Amino acid sequence: MDTQTSSPPPPPPAKVIGKAFVEQYYHMLYESPELVHRFYQESSVLSRPNRNGEMTSVTTTEQRIDSIEDMICSFHYKNYKAEIKTADAQESYKDGVIVLVTGCLTGMDDIRRKFKQTFFLAPQDKGYFVLNDVFRYVEDSEPLESNKVIVNGIHDAPLASITPDPGPAKVYVQANTSRVDPTKTEKQAPIPVAHDPVTEPSAPSASGSVNAPQSGNAQEEAEGHSIYVRNLPLNVTDSQLEEEFTKFGPIKQGGVQV
Questions:
Q1: CA 99, CA 6: separation in Å to the nearest integer?
Q2: pLDDT, tens digit, 9 for 90 and up, residues 171-200
Q3: Which pLDDT band, with edges at 50, 70 and 90, does 61 fall under?
Q4: Which of 138, 144, 189, 192 is 20 to 30 A from 33 via CA?
Q5: Three-state SS at 39
């Protein structure tokens, strides 16, 4: 009678393995952290950030205070409360399983910090052990400064440091302004666009001012006169120009064009 050799059953899906591991690991980590080193073997590598944010890696083969067991106990996990957000698993090399965990840790100071932790579970005779373990806190995004803008996902410089635009801009000023002499401006031709280098004026701001031309820079257009202003910042707006030039006389509605 021939004996039939049965093949070993296939391993459970990675999702099942990852879920079971996460439940066991984090329960033991915060209840009995001194026993967590049992998940690791001599070939295991554990990485944690130090106080400077630089990653430090240790193994159980090092017979010093920075071994895996001592490093885990040095974090005093009993003083923290863990909240697991997600746990994702994926089949990997030689029937191994990669597990990615995200969550939050709350310490005695009631500060809640987000973290990510990645494990590589390597198969052994009975189950799996942690071959690689990488942990990192994830800081929240910093708020943007109020005087900065984002163009196509790139942080632009503050308004005052943007390179002026060499192209001209139009500001229409009514002819009845008290600062512009109609007898002079009617006889003057529009200023041509100069190609020679010109002095770059500072960007207009709420506290600064722009020197308006008193003569020689006006052109009669529509019901008033037009003034061409060169070398404006790239992000200057109609409202900024209108605010500056209303100091020198009224401007008709919609008269500012950039």
A1: 30
A2: 443 444 444 444 444 444 444 444 444 444
A3: low
A4: 138
A5: helix
- Pairing relation of β-strands 128-138 and 40-49? parallel
Q: Are 237 and 206 in contact (CB under 8 A)?
A: no
Q: Are 87 and 103 in contact (CB under 8 A)?
A: no
User: Which helix H or strand E contains 240, and what residues bound it?
Assistant: helix 238-245
Q: By mean pLDDT, which of 18-27, 52-61, 149-158 is the weakest?
A: 149-158
The answer to whether 25 and 32 are in contact (CB under 8 A) is no
Give the model confidence (pLDDT) of 78-92 as tens digits: 999 999 999 999 999
> What CATH code would you report for 14-137?
3.10.450.50
Q: How far apart are the first and last CA of the chain?
A: 96
| CB 3, CB 73: distance < 8 Å | no
Using only C-alpha atoms, the chain has a radius of gyration, in whole angstroms, of 35
Q: pTM for this one?
A: 0.52
Residue 230, judged by CB atoms within 10 A of its CB (0-12, 13-18, 19+), counts as middle
HEC sequence for 182-212: HHHHCCCCCCCCCCCCCCCCCCCCCCCCCCC
